[in-house]
Amino acid sequence: MYLQQNLDYTLFDWSKQGDLTPIEVERAEGCYFWDSSGKRYLDWNSQIMNVNIGHGNRHVIDAIHAQAEALPYVSSFMATRVRGELGEKLAEITPGDLRKTFFTLGGAEAVENAMKIARMVTGRDKIVTRYRAYHGATAGAASAGGDPRRLPLEPGVPWIVRAHDPYRYRCLFCRELDGCNLICEDHIEQTIEMEGPQNVAAVLLEGWSGSSGLIQSPRNAEYFQRLRRYCDRHGILLIIDEVMSGFGRTGKWFAIEHADVVPDIMVMAKGLTSGYLPLGAVTVRRDIADHFDDHTLWAGLTYGGHPMCLAAASACVDVYRNDNLIERAAQMGQRLRDELTALAQRHAIVGELRGEGMFYVLELVRERATREPLSPWNGPLSAPMRRAKQYLDSAGLYTYIRWNMIFSAPPLILSEAQLQQGIAHLDQALTLAGNEKR
Ligand SMILES: Cc1ncc(COP(=O)(O)O)c(C=O)c1O
User: Fold this and answer.
1) Pairing state of beta strands 265-268 and 237-241?
2) 334-364 as b/e, with b when 16 or more CB fall inside 10 Å?
3) DSSP letter at 287?
4) Looking at residue 43, what is its pLDDT?
5) Are 77 and 301 spatial neighbours (Cβ–Cβ below 8 Å)?
6) Pocket-testing residue among 243, 282, 407, ligand 1, by greatest number of atoms within 8 A of Cβ
7) Residue 19 — very low, low, confident or very high, per pLDDT cuts 50/70/90?
8) pLDDT band at 102; cut points 50, 70, 90
9) In angstroms, rounded to a whole number, what is the distance separating the alpha carbons of residues 110 and 91?
10) 65 sits in which H/E element
11) Ligand 1 atom having least distance to the Cα of 136
12) What are the tens digits of pLDDT across the range 263-296?
């Protein structure tokens, strides 16, 4: 059908174009989508971890229609009804005194603008980030993430400094010890000491690590609380990127709430509209907002505050609230965790299960004792990983597989029957990968 036309006339993300056979998607509803042959896929990854409320939600679609009829677009310099309405809703659902929002078209642009705001407010240059993190594909955001997708694009922007992650399973600091000693957090402080705290505008971290493999300190709350205190002592802003981890993904509105920490700047996208239209947001605390009362905000986008995108987000927030999706994510997430834990116990190739709420990763290894990855970091998929992927594709379970990791991030509306279906497919995929390894 249209696959060939897609391949002939368009370029796809992050791939050698010659190897591609993207699925021809015809329609989507709830937790499923269908290809042009009528085959049904269970969307176990909410597309790119963004369709949190599921596909085809009537309330959001109607809101987009209504906004298109009333006022599809005006300049980002204009005030609109929906802009005020969504701004207020975001102030309500974000923690602490996070108050005013700047709108962008997606996550990367939101990260760019968050970093700009931090640099403007503090008058300092450097932004400290982590290696195992992804913050988007534009120049500054790609530099900010240490994710290897940045490597072919380097040198990046010169004012990013990266530190190591609280990767307990392969930790540089405490792997041989019984528990986490939080040296991972001291390491960030030390890095900043070496860089000169007076030169550091902000520390930028994901609220919950995402595509790098849900790498989070087992002492999550202490990790963030210590960092918060350190930043406060040195006038450094804390930017939390909730692009992937926000909007119920971890069983709370925002993952940073697990640590009971209020960031100075929060970055959102993905679940903000659940993908119905593109939108990113940078929400800042009241004192940062006040700074711009008498300083120019050197930021702007033709499509910032696009009314139709804002209408999608506003309706989406209603859906999270009215359908109690955040509470549901916490409850269903517990079921998902229990089932994945059982899989992890049954299959020797599972080295570690990590995650929270409706957000998990199974990290696969050749031997539990050596923890040798089943597929190399930043390399092509090994034969066992390819076998797992091939099975899931043919069985109609759509999910994200990266290196030696299989992700589980289904829509928050997942039913018990769908959960069982997904787990059964994962079970079989792990069996096949385990057999292939031998
Ligand atoms: C944590 C995080 N930040 C930022 C981004 C970039 O968002 P976008 O792809 O909308 O630019 C992503 C995308 O996956 C992400 O996971």
Assistant:
1) parallel
2) eebbebbeebbeebebbbbbbbbbbbbbbbb
3) H
4) 98
5) no
6) 243
7) confident
8) very high
9) 17
10) helix 58-70
11) 6
12) 999 999 999 999 999 999 999 999 999 999 999 9
The class level of CATH for 58-322 reads alpha beta
Report whether pLDDT(175) > 90: no
pLDDT at 176 over 90: no
Mutational pocket test of ligand 1: of 109, 147, 270, the residue with most ligand atoms within 8 Å of the beta carbon: 270
User: Which residues are CB-neighbours of 362 under 8 A, at least 6 positions away?
Assistant: 340, 343, 344, 350, 352, 353, 405, 406, 408, 426, 430
> Is 40:396 a contact under the CB 8 Å cutoff?
yes
Q: Residue-wise over 195-231: b if at least 16 C-beta within 10 A, else e?
A: eebeebbbbbbbbbbbbbbbbbbebbeebbebbbebb
Residue 323, pLDDT > 90, answer yes
* Domain ranges across the chain: 3-53+324-437, 58-322
pTM metric for this prediction: 0.98
Confidence of residue 177 (pLDDT cuts 50, 70, 90): confident
3-53+324-437 and 58-322, same CATH topology: no
239, 204 Cβ separation under 8 angstroms:
yes
What top-level class would CATH report for the domain 3-53+324-437? alpha beta
